[in-house]
Here is the input.
Amino acid sequence: MIKRFFVLVFSFIITLGQVYAYELDMSVDEEIQKKYNSSKLNYEVLPNLPKVDNSAKNTTTQTSIPKTQPTYNTSVPNITPVNKSAAITIPSGTKFSVKSDQTIADTMRATTNVSFTTTAPVYSKYTTIPAGAKFYGVIVDSHRPQISGNGGLVVIRMASLAYGGNTYRADGKITKANYKKVFLNNIKGKHQYWKSVGTRVSKGETFYGKSKNVSARMSNIPIIEFVSFVPRVVGALGYGVNAVVSPVTALFSKGGSVSIPAGSTFEIKLLDDVYVSK
Here is the structure.
């Protein structure tokens, strides 16, 4: 009788161990996939090492290290003086379709100059702003993705408009980026808080499903049938814990980055009247 009892306990421990070992293995595998692209591990885990020329042992070789972030050096022309009483007015609220001359990313620091090129003419009273005109602006705020699921941020303020050999003061903001509306001039990365909550709850559901499968298999084995309900109970507890703690763990997740390639479509809206020469 005692021997049979120990056999039952040993069988139960082994069965539960298989469930939780598999769950741990899946969790570790998910963490590895977050950090590494498994399809490229064979090619990118080790850096490319420079070849050593054994015939020139006494010479010193220098290996150039690529920059991790591009550097932007947009040259902004000086503002052309304009007599407002004799100038043509481009009214505030006028919108321009433009394309970016450089990548717009949340890795760019505040005070960085950026430029855009108009892609279509804009007609105003007594004048036309041709395609190919330049808008110059400056990044006034930016940050990388933050915890609590908050995405990256880029805020650009337009400062001048250049065409016809002159550069005019032009206060403006971004209203669209890559055909998506931009609110309050804030180009933001995706907010991931609720997605992180859903991911954690989904893990609990998956764990519960595996536990039910173990209970079903145990119920078909007469020797441990009487304890087949235990994995299901453990799975339900695991699901409940995941659901309860998911709003807290999601606070430590980060949102999406902002990285819009050069040549992407933007829309600029004037915030004040622009005065140009006749």
